[in-house]
Amino acid sequence: MMTFKKKTTVALSLIAAMTAGTVFAAPPALPKDGSWGPGAGDANFDAMMQSGFQNKGIATTDRLKQDPTQKLCSNPVLAESPKTAALREKLQAENEASIKYPSDGKWMGDWKNGEKIAQSGRGLTWTDKAGEANGGNCYNCHQISKQELSYGTIGPSLYNYGKLRGNSEEIMKYTWGKIYNAKATNVCSLMPRAGSMGIMTEAQIRDLMALLLDPESPVNK
Amino acid sequence: MRSQHIKASLLAVATVLTVSAQAQQDSTTAGIEAYREALQDGNPADLYVDSGAEIWKKKAGPKEASLEKCDLGLGAGKVKGAYAQLPRYFKDTNKVQDLESRLLTCMEKLQGVDTAPIIKAGFNSPQKADLVALSAYVSSESKGMKVKVSMAHPKERQMYDLGRRLFYYEAGPYDFACATCHGQDGKRIRLQDLPYIPSAEGAAKGWTTWPAYRVSSGQMWSMQWRINDCFRQQRFPEPIYASDVTVAISSFMAGNSNGSVMQTPGIKR
Question: Model ipTM?
Answer without folding.
Answer: 0.89
